[in-house]
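Q: Predict the assembly, please.
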Amino acid sequence: MKLRILLADDHEIVRRGLRALLEKHEGWEVCGEASDGREAIEKALQLRPDVVIVDIGMPSLNGLDTTRQLLQHDPHFKVIVLTITDSDQVIREALDAGARGFVLKSDAARDLVTAVEALQNKRMFFTPRVNDLVLAGFLEKGQTVARNEAPKLPTLTAREREITQLLAEGNSSKEVACLLNLSTKTVETHRSNIMRKLSFHSIRDLVVYAIKNNLIQIEIPPPRTPPMGPTAA
Amino acid sequence: MTIRILLVDDHPVVRHGLKTLLEGRSGWEVIGEASDGAEALEKAKDLNPDVMVLDITMPKMNGLEACRLLRRQAPQLEILFVTQHDSPQMMREALDAGARGYVVKSNAARDLLAAVEAVSQHRVFTALNGRDAAGLR
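A: Predicted assembly structure:
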């Protein structure tokens, strides 16, 4: 029987590349694709894939919250997260969300097949950096609280995180309500609770929070360089 | 019509996706790949492609710098940016650097073939997200 894989990434060109890569492997098939987290959950529940590959930086519902929600629906889902960064925070959140595999997008051509094979064999797959971090965490266990750790902000509920992402992406309360099938009043109540919990006063604060906490990802443009003159080298 | 294309992006998976799309067109050939701007300059010199599909954010040398240098090194080469940056300012900068086309990565599957066709015929092709694939001139 074929191993069935669901791919979730907002870039069709990336999905196309991943599909070509995975389908070269005998006995594997990509049974579905999704372009955001919500669609990924819907398709996963409908198609029951053996492995779900989710990009972290997806619009509407990011890959970490997608992983959390999928595993709440059914803890048997096996999820590999694809990420552009392996910062400590992203690694911790991916592990906390329940991902069984963690692959850097830049290394996907090399690591993704190995990661899917690992999950197929009931193992996990992490990059060497994740392994180092897990080991460091294990060795430090029992010690006092990490020294330079920033004070933690109050935790948001899953619904509040969803709404925070959608607001930070520029949606109005009405648009969020429409996307989540809620009333505008309910969304506004959540919005007030979020702002109060985090002691924020503006949507700008919320956007910064969403970026810092990987709810949304932004691509930083390269530094501006003046165009070269006709005699420049 | 035969078009020889050089693909430049630091993510092999993205190059793979672009390649499968481009090679679906009869007569179009991906003759090489590069993962940063410096490698793009070298490969352009060696392979002499008709069109370069170029990312902006890359290590070592970004696409804009590479584009400016390529304009001098290979004036006949047409450059099409395929980038994450969905911004009119960045698009302006890319065209000022000497590119003939600009496509946003999230729409590449929709716009890429038309864009390569246009720039290979020395026509401008620009399309940002939420805007029509217009700008042909």
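The mean pLDDT of chain A is 85. The first strand of chain A starts at residue 3 and ends at 8.
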